[in-house]
Design goal:
The protein is an alpha/beta fold. It has 2 domains: about 5-265 and about 435-495, FAD/NAD(P)-binding domain, CATH 3.50.50; about 265-430, Flavocytochrome C3, Chain A, domain 1. It has 13 helices and 22 strands. Bound molecules: flavin-adenine dinucleotide. Flavin-adenine dinucleotide binds next to helix 1, strand 10, strand 19 and helix 13. Flavin-adenine dinucleotide binds near residues 47 and 215.
Length: about 500
């Protein structure tokens, strides 16, 4: 870490996907850029490091995909069906899962800028691959992609994070580790002029013509979780970094920024019951268990409590963590039979997993600690409720149950073929939805009267207004990249156009 230079055009707070896209864009626009990372170097990269690396963007068909992934061979292309994902569908998906609450202008920016932004990242040196294992099923010999999420950065979250650091440093950005931003400095006109940074040897003031806040949400702050998300949220596991404690949001609010978005909402998933309190950098996102649409979910009494087949997992997984948190002892179990075991995602094949197998439902209940009579009764009733129809996991197949609550609306196969397997999960929080309000075109932070705060920009998880109640998988990284790039460009423009120092 070098701390000799104390004046920069643009200071970026945070070092995840949003921050590093902002840093790259600002540097490219000619600004001298400093990136502040609260974590020490060996723990750098925020939640981005823990991600699966999937970015959701619209595409018109295989030609767009080949523009992004030029090393796809003709032979590979013959074996896949990528379909298309029009901009209008991305827009509708966001509106549908957020109950129509997503800010329309922000959503429009995300949808229209997503594909140009992934191409921009590719042109800067980030490589992309198709999400073969997670987002495609083999149908009639062809790998068919589903659910509007098709590509990841190579190496997943760790690969993307390391590559973005390489690109930012290679472009000439300075990075300080163990450097926690604690307070914004403002001129009496309201303009942001710099910030205080806590370094291992004490506090230091850094002057900046513009600041980009990209310091994540408050998911790793148990007190804020309880305060804003509600009862029992302090008991959730944190899936990613321990460093996202709401600092960026707090600093901006203190400077007059407007709180915006779904402050009592968050992204939370089913996460292995034996997982540690924060993310494990070696395991990454593999404590998640996302193949539940192929099976059943029950609580410790053996009762079902959600519609496992309500929609593609991309559109339900981020809200079902909250349902698990509400179950007795905050525990749930995912159950599968031999018919579908081969189709489970990669995260079911790790050694750090809480799993039981049995040739009978009663034995499975005993192995997992579920009430035996309750589970046997639930499975009997469920199997009797399964309706005929053609099972196809790559589409919403409408193969459903009748006469039970909750229903299973798609992919309802009877659970009747041993051996059975069950996995124990709890609630893992990913990130929080509430945050700051930004101008949808410039990512400049707005004050409580909707006026831009001069010199202050924001991107990533700490921006509110896009996600309410739920979230379409892959939108977090994409929104961070789109708004990070915008924030960096506009911060640089604001910084470089400043004529006289205040
Ligand atoms: C396990 C897991 C899997 C996920 N998978 C996906 C996926 O496949 N696709 C997807 O779209 N999204 C995924 N997400 C969500 C995703 O993490 C986020 O949408 C995205 O990475 C957030 O990026 P960000 O830059 O906003 O925040 P982060 O990447 O969390 O970066 C925040 C940064 O701010 C730093 N920081 C915090 N406070 C301060 C301070 N005071 N001073 C300086 N620095 C500070 C942190 O150390 C960190 O570097 C996943 C999340 C998790 C946890």
């Amino acid at each position: 870490m070098t701390a000799e230079r104390l004046r920069f055009d643009v200071v970026v707070v945070g070092a995840g996907n949003a921050a590093l896209c902002a840093a790259l864009a600002a540097r490219e626009a000619g600004a001298a850029v400093l990136v502040l990372e609260k974590a020490p170097e060996h723990l750098r990269g925020g939640n981005t490091y823990f991600t699966g690396g999937g970015y959701r963007f619209p595409y018109r068909g295989i030609d767009d995909i080949r523009a992004l992934i030029p090393d796809l061979t003709d032979e590979e292309v013959r074996g896949i069906d990528v379909g298309s994902y029009p901009q209008a569908q991305f827009y509708d998906d966001l509106m549908r899962v957020t109950e129509g609450l997503a800010d329309q202008e922000m959503t429009q920016t995300l949808v229209s800028q997503a594909f140009p932004t992934v191409l921009w990242m590719k042109d800067r040196g980030l490589r992309w691959v198709l999400l073969y294992g997670r987002q495609a099923y083999r149908v009639g010999g062809v790998l068919t992609f589903w659910g509007g999420l098709i590509a990841e950065g190579i190496g997943g979250g760790a690969g993307i994070s390391d590559r973005l650091f390489e690109l930012a440093v290679g472009a000439g950005c300075s990075v300080w580790y163990d450097a926690k931003a604690t307070r914004l400095h403002t001129h009496r006109t309201g303009r942001v002029t710099g910030l205080t940074v806590r370094l291992p040897d004490g506090d230091r003031d850094v002057e900046a013509a513009a600041v980009v806040l990209a310091a994540g949400g408050f998911e790793a702050n148990p007190e804020w979780r309880t305060r804003y998300l509600g009862r029992d949220w302090e008991l959730a596991r944190v899936r990613g970094t321990r460093y996202n404690t709401g600092d960026g949001i707090r600093m901006a609010l203190e400077a007059g920024a407007q709180p915006f978005g779904h402050w009592s909402g968050c992204h939370a998933v089913q996460w292995d019951i034996a997982s540690p309190p924060f993310g494990d950098r070696k395991i990454g996102d593999l404590f998640q268990k996302h193949s539940y649409p192929l099976g059943l979910m029950v609580n410790i009494h053996g009762e079902r409590f959600v519609d496992e087949g309500a929609d593609f997992r991309n559109y339900t997984y981020a809200k079902y963590g909250r349902d698990v948190l509400a179950q007795p002892q905050r525990i749930a179990f995912q159950l599968f039979d031999a018919k579908v075991m081969h189709a489970l995602r990669d995260e079911y094949r790790i050694t750090a997993i809480t799993k039981a197998t049995s040739d009978s439902i009663a034995g499975l209940a005993d192995g997992l600690g579920i009430d035996r009579d309750g589970l046997v009764r639930t499975i009997r009733e469920y199997n009797a409720a399964v309706q005929p129809g053609e099972y196809n996991p790559a589409i919403l197949d409408g193969k459903r149950t009748a006469g039970i609550t909750p229903p299973k609306s798609n992919w309802a196969l009877p659970l009747d073929t041993p051996p059975y397997a069950g996995f124990a999960v709890t609630c893992g929080i990913t990130f929080t939805f509430g945050g700051l309000r930004v101008d949808p075109h410039t990512a400049q932070v707005l004050d409580t009267e909707d006026r831009p705060l001069p010199g202050l920009f924001a991107a990533g998880e700490l921006v509110g207004g896009l996600f309410y109640h739920n979230y379409p998988g892959g939108s977090g990284l994409m929104a961070g990249a789109v708004y990070g790039k915008l924030a960096g460009e506009h911060a640089a423009r604001a910084a470089l156009s400043r004529i006289a120092p205040l």
